[in-house]
Amino acid sequence: MAFESWSDFWEMGKHGLYVWSTYGISMLLLVGLLVTTRLHRKQLRKQLKKRIQREQSR
């Protein structure tokens, strides 16, 4: 193992704050992207369903 203990691993040679905050921000951005994509897809499906119903009622 590259680190002698778990505390050394979490600290990462005094760069732990930077490393773990970068991972955290990246995960937040990925989760945010996933949520907004799903919401957008849901909204788009509603719009398409309404459009299809309008086309069929003509």
TrEMBL record:
Bilayer-crossing regions: 20-40
Predominant location category: membrane
Subcellular location: Cell inner membrane
Record carries keyword Cell inner membrane: yes
Source organism per UniProt: Marinomonas communis
Highest taxon of source: Bacteria
InterPro entries: Haem_export_protD_CcmD (IPR007078), Heme_exporter_D (IPR052075)
Any one of the GO BP annotations: heme transport
Role played: Required for the export of heme to the periplasm for the biogenesis of c-type cytochromes.
Similarity section: Belongs to the CcmD/CycX/HelD family.
Keywords of the record: Cell inner membrane, Cell membrane, Cytochrome c-type biogenesis, Membrane, Transmembrane, Transmembrane helix, Transport
Signal sequence annotation: none
Gene Ontology CC terms, in alphabetical order: plasma membrane
Name this protein carries in UniProt: Heme exporter protein D
Membrane topology: Single-pass membrane protein
UniProt keyword annotation of Transmembrane helix present: yes
